[in-house]
Amino acid sequence: MNYLVVGLGNIGAEYASTRHNMGFMVLDAWAQASNLVFESRRYGSVAECSYRGRKLILLKPSTYMNLSGNAVRYWMHKMNIPTERIIVICDDLNLPFGTVRMRMRGSDGGHNGLKDIEDALGTQLYARIRIGIGNDFKQGGQIDFVLGEISEEQKKTVQELSVRIVSGIETFTTAGPERAMNLLNAKSS
Predict the structure, then answer these.
(1) Which residues are catalytic?
(2) What is the pLDDT of residues 122-153, one digit of tens each?
(3) Does the pTM exceed 0.85?
(4) What total number of domains does the chain contain?
């Protein structure tokens, strides 16, 4: 059984540590902890791993955030993965920094990457894991905020969250979405 795990972000070193790249950061932490290597492939960087008989394709789209849908659709079709086995990891302005929320469906919530994926797939029925980045910016400062770098302390928090998110994704593949949501949506201590 194949699963597609998509981390959203923008390509380029100048974006590597920005709030908008939470999805990339989680997949990079996963790859580092598991000795996975991303390879440049069509529409993105891809790594593969196995977990209890499941094959997980990790994708960091190279299409920039607002055009992520093409990459997701391409890999979904190439690997014959139904939408219910797609998980998208992204940042969320509406959640306090470090909060994690998983949902199996829903609106894009104003996130242009999710909006493009929804448009490309023609459905909202795919899992998304949102990582809170907070909204500590003045009116009109949203773009600068999401493209701003996180602090060293926040980077440590993201590393810790990544372990929990990977565990949640593994739970999703073996025990199903309800168990994964129970794990990921619980308040962290």
Answers:
(1) 20
(2) 999 999 999 999 988 888 888 899 999 999 99
(3) yes
(4) 1
